[in-house]
């Protein structure tokens, strides 16, 4: 028992600055039996259910993943195979279908990041050659955008909105804004900065929403109206046991989407640290209401929703919290984020700076 309480004490202070543990603010109901004896109180609290499954099994297949996205409503992977100094580019469907997109292309095509729009146009982001290229279905180059022209040396993400607009994010050199959201004309390649939204979190992700842009960061998922910058929270991770941890080398989120039931699906890969083999995973996140007869303790901390996990600190904290909750019959610990700077996430309307 002493060991359990030592774990709880460590949870309060290890590597993190905590601003207190308090009884959970969840609702408690106490019922009485016909004999007049009070039943044990039941506490309800909000949490996130996470379910993962492998979606592409590429074991033994020569080549490498150069794109992982949702295409025409399905999970899809873009796969490059190098042979004799050339590269073939394939599209894999989850049901095992494989389609040859481009054959006999230059070998450096296999080192680029790829994206396919809903009309079948190919976008190749060659950070080695410092350019963003659009090609047609035959591999013909339609236009080329030098990254230097938009003040960056790396495109982080591309996505296509429901209305057909193409968005891209990147880090702008010599700028006070660490993360830039821009719109690209799919016909001409002309790029213009989205002035209504300022992104502060360089580890965040963007995707198509029902009417605007979905924004995923460690605090949850929001939909952003790009015309006026207004934000609507769709799914919040704050105050739940879920941690959106990501490491660009070992565990990377490549794409995400909102499902009809309000849950969020992430496409990510996980790399084995010994073999370096990648496993491709679909992770579905759904809000849920849990009930427990234990006392819920809310541990409020700073810097627990950042997605970086340098040294494994946050993974360790999550594991210890889960271990404590599994072994203790009286108390249950949930984490909450102390607001820092008055914001919940890494997004602000542009006119606020």
Short note summarizing the structure:
By secondary structure, this protein is mainly β.
Summarize the helices and strands and which ones pair or pack.
Layout: H1 2-13, E1 18-23, E2 27-29, E3 42-56, E4 64-71, E5 74-83, E6 86-93, E7 98-106, E8 113-116, E9 122-126, E10 131-135, E11 141-146, E12 155-160, E13 166-170, E14 180-184, E15 191-193, E16 197-199, E17 205-208, E18 213-217, E19 220-224, E20 231-236, E21 251-258, E22 264-271, E23 278-292, E24 295-301, H2 313-327, E25 331-337, E26 347-349
Parallel strand pairs: 24-25
Antiparallel strand pairs: 1-24, 2-3, 3-23, 4-5, 5-6, 6-7, 8-9, 9-10, 10-11, 12-13, 13-14, 14-15, 16-26, 17-18, 18-19, 19-20, 21-22, 22-23
Tell me the strand order in the biggest sheet: 2-3-23-22-21
State the total count of DSSP E strands.
26
The shape is globular
Mean pLDDT: 78
Q: Give the oligomer, counting copies of the same chain as homo and different chains as hetero.
A: single chain
Secondary-structure class: mainly beta
SSE succession: HEEEEEEEEEEEEEEEEEEEEEEEEHEE
Global Rg: 23 Å
